[in-house]
Specification:
about 800 residues, alpha+beta, about 20% strand, about 30% helix, 13-stranded mixed sheet, SAC_dom
């Protein structure tokens, strides 16, 4: 089976006769499979005995592999007066075969620009569409298709017809300008050929309940496209790392080595705003990785694959960071109340084990045995006395102890344990070779490496048959789930390699590259005597499923050097990618991996640490704001002067008299309950007034109106407030006006009545004058719909603040120059 690739240009932004038009490309629906008709029997034939039922593939066989096989088509869209997406019907056709035909048939245009992908849109003062301006292939998929890495994005703005320009404070205008020019790149990827939110091999599970990685970073941006029935025109944006290396085998075939990491978006903040647990019991810098090897059989035969799943994230307890005036390492601050530090840790581990069970169900095709998953947390923090990391390790140990009993009850047969590898101190005292041996000994204690691997075959029909299922998992951490964590993940994947190759029936000598791996420390002259003797003694040793020392790993008869080099290179790039997402710097401690694969040495750890100190102090607020806006969260906090009524529902100025604002609605009240309250208030409070005034009575059943409200506004407010409280300064270094996270906390709804109905009866005025909406013990008053508009002279404040910002930029650029 070969999969038809998706079009490489998925949208175009055009302007024709002053109207902004968005052309989007969608896959044509696949025809339904033909029904299976029973075989007709002659009258003298007897039905044969039933054939033994063949075992079904372990997971689904599904149409994602064939998504584009029926072709594609192009649809024009516009933004209407309510800020909603609609199909545009004023061109020569409503649909076109492709973007080129749309351009040719509907031209001339004032402008027509094509983009590789559309991720969705966000309504602020205008409609902003997020498009990919640059992409490159990160990895190929089995049977065709690709994972694409995002090299640049742009927010394309469309005006909302009938709306006036919003009034914004100077601070909000500056933040809006920054938002418009912000590019999400270097750690984002997507695929239009499969659903990367699912585990490899990216097919649907039988019951549709696969693991919830919470890795969809553009889900909120796609919502406006649902009402137009074109949500599938948007690509699903993931954040993390995805890349592959192709390794040549002696038989001329290729082994694909894929590393795919998905970052959880429940605690999305950068370094000092995303450490430990937040208000929803999620940890910062939380990723699930799949290390995959796959190869295709002869011709277009089935795909053999093996994979290892590994977790990483910060420590699941509550703590904050205090930055001093000096360049010294920021201090970790813990509450004196231990229960407050550990609050939510058991909920976090329960969530992790729920996902591990879901992964096992997905991998095994729902055929789970009675045993639950085993999770080993490998803690790589310092354990020296009087260090903040020692205190963090102590709280981590208490969190695991607290969670173990609850997990045993909720997940029978499961196991959670915590082991410690003081990487930095061991490296200083014992050297890299002994530290590596200690890490592997600690990692594999009571573990069998075959428990760390899932392996199977993808048939030409897309069905998956499993040979083994991973039941033991590893979670690696340091303070920030960054540099030491990256090395720990590499070492873990390094050990799982031999079992993965065994399932693929590949030997260490199957590879073209048979050059030895280098020693972990750059050494001039001859190798140390013990290293040379170890290699000589191991030459021709029988096959193993793990290696105990780096000297053993350097023996090509025990470990394939080609895989070691490919894996180390992937983890070099992974480390830099995650570090830039989290700290806006390269990874530290990466020269160990760079030496293995032969890459150029990185800058010193001191230089990178200094750069991080200033980047995090000056840039984290801005980065956090733009991440939250990408996720569609807390717009009222980030733009406090932006009209909440407009954000809920932009009503054309000429129709303001047909709309009302209900302020102070309790959290969690759905639109259906607001509608009931409006109709009840009309019947109980307005109708009697109509009778008194001799006006013909109209019951609430005749009212025609639309309610716009958000059901989950408060959820992310708490998360944001928790995040900003994680960071304190001895002296404020921001140089700009802080956003008050507590303001604009009222929940409101916009109620817009039919314009023709309002001509006959001024329902908004009658409700405003006579009615109060009741929600249990809360009464909500109604106000006329309005929002502040921008005056002609604008706002000229902020000159002093610009000077402070210029000084800050000078220091920031100086520190960045240290790294160049």
């Amino acid at each position: 089976m070969y999969v038809e690739k998706s079009p490489r240009k998925r949208c175009a932004v055009a302007v024709k006769d002053g109207t902004s038009i968005l052309f989007v490309v969608l896959a044509r629906p696949l025809p339904p499979p033909p029904p299976k008709e029973p075989e007709l029997l002659m009258f003298f034939e007897k039905p044969s005995s039933p054939v033994a039922k063949q075992p079904e593939p372990a997971t689904g066989n599904e149409v994602e592999w064939q998504k584009w096989s029926a072709g594609s088509y192009c649809v024009p869209l516009v933004v209407d007066e309510r800020g909603e997406i609609q199909r545009y019907d004023k061109l020569c056709h409503r649909e076109f075969p492709n973007l080129r035909d749309a351009y040719r048939q509907c031209g001339p245009f004032e402008s027509f620009v094509e983009f590789a992908a559309l991720f969705g849109c966000l309504r602020l003062d205008r409609m902003y569409f997020l498009v990919a301006t640059k992409v490159e292939e990160a990895a190929v998929l089995p049977f065709g298709g690709a994972i694409l890495r995002v090299g640049g994005t742009e927010w394309i703005s469309f005006g909302i017809p009938g709306s006036e320009p919003l009034y914004l404070t100077s601070g909000d205008r500056n933040r809006l300008k920054e938002f418009e020019t912000y590019s999400h790149e270097g750690g984002y990827y997507y695929s239009d050929d499969c659903d990367l939110r699912r585990p490899f091999p990216f097919v649907s599970s039988k019951d549709g309940n696969g693991p919830q990685f919470h890795s969809d970073w553009s889900r909120q941006l796609r919502k406006p496209f649902v009402t137009a029935g074109v949500e599938s025109c948007c690509s699903v944006l993931l954040r993390g790392f995805a890349a592959e290396k192709e390794v040549l085998l002696k038989d001329g075939s290729i082994l694909h080595v894929l590393l795919c990491g998905r970052q959880n978006n429940l605690n999305p903040g950068p370094r000092y705003f995303g450490r430990g647990l937040n208000a929803v019991n999620a940890v910062g810098n939380d990723h699930v990785y799949e290390y995959v090897m796959w190869r295709q059989g002869g011709g277009n035969g089935p795909i053999q694959f093996a994979k290892h799943t590994i977790l990483r994230g910060t420590v699941p307890v509550h703590w904050s960071t205090r930055i001093s005036k000096t360049i010294s390492e920021p201090a970790m601050m813990f509450s004196q109340n231990k229960e407050e530090v550990l609050r939510g840790c058991d909920s976090y581990f329960s969530f992790v084990f729920t996902q591990l069970v879901a992964i096992m169900r997905y991998d095994s095709g729902e055929q789970l045995t009675g045993r639950g998953p085993r999770l080993r947390c490998v803690n790589m923090l310092r354990q020296s006395h009087h260090s903040s990391e020692e205190a963090l390790t102590k709280h981590f140990t208490e969190a695991v102890t607290k969670s173990q009993a609850a997990l045993q009850q909720a997940f029978p047969g499961s196991q959670l344990d915590l082991v410690h590898v003081d990487w930095l101190n061991m490296l200083k005292e014992q050297g890299i070779d002994r530290t590596t041996t200690t890490f592997w000994t600690t990692l594999l204690a009571t573990f069998s490496t075959d428990e760390l691997v899932t392996a199977g075959t993808i048939g030409v029909d897309g069905g998956v048959t499993l040979n083994s299922c991973q039941t033991s998992f590893v979670r690696v951490n340091c303070a920030d789930s960054l540099d030491r964590t990256n090395i720990g993940c590499f070492y873990t994947c390094f050990q799982s390699t031999l079992n993965m190759l065994a399932y693929l029936r590949l030997e260490p000598d199957s590879f073209v590259d048979q050059n030895r791996l280098p020693p972990l420390e750059e050494q001039e002259g001859e190798r140390p005597l013990e290293t040379t003797l170890a290699m000589l003694q191991l030459s021709g040793s029988p096959r193993r499923d793990s290696v105990a020392t780096w000297q053993e790993a350097c023996n090509p008869s025990l470990y394939p050097a080609a895989i070691g080099r490919a894996l180390s290179e992937l983890y070099v790039y992974n480390g830099d990618t995650i570090a830039r997402l989290y700290t806006n710097s390269a990874a530290m401690h990466s020269n160990i991996l760079r030496g293995i694969c032969g890459l150029k040495a990185a800058a010193s750890n001191m230089v990178i640490a200094t750069q991080r100190r200033y980047e995090n102090a000056f840039e984290d607020k801005s980065k956090f704001r733009n991440i939250e806006l990408l996720l569609g969260r807390n717009i009222d906090i980030h733009f406090p002067s932006m009209s909440q009524a407009f954000l809920k529902r932009p009503v054309p100025v000429e129709n303001w008299g047909c709309a009302l604002i209900a302020k102070g609605i309790p959290v969690g009240v759905p639109c259906s309950e607001i509608e009931q309250a409006v109709r009840k208030a009309w019947d109980s409070l307005v109708v009697p007034r109509l009778r008194e005034d001799g006006i013909p009575v109209t019951s609430s059943d005749a009212l025609t109106f639309i309610i716009s409200a958000e059901d989950n506004e408060g959820e992310y407010h708490d998360e944001f407030i928790c995040a900003v409280k994680q960071l304190t300064f001895e002296q404020d270094t921001s140089g700009e006006e802080d956003t008050n996270a507590e303001q604009n906390s009222e929940h409101l709804a916009v109620i817009e009545f039919d314009k023709d109905f309002c001509r006959a009866l001024d329902a908004p005025f009658l409700l405003q004058e006579n009615a109060i909406l009741k929600f249990q013990t809360t009464g909500v008053a109604l106000e006329p719909y309005t929002y502040p508009v921008l005056s002609e002279n604008g706002n000229s404040r902020g000159i002093v603040r610009k000077a402070a910002k210029s000084l800050r930029s000078g220091v920031k650029n100086f520190v960045r120059g240290l790294y160049k």
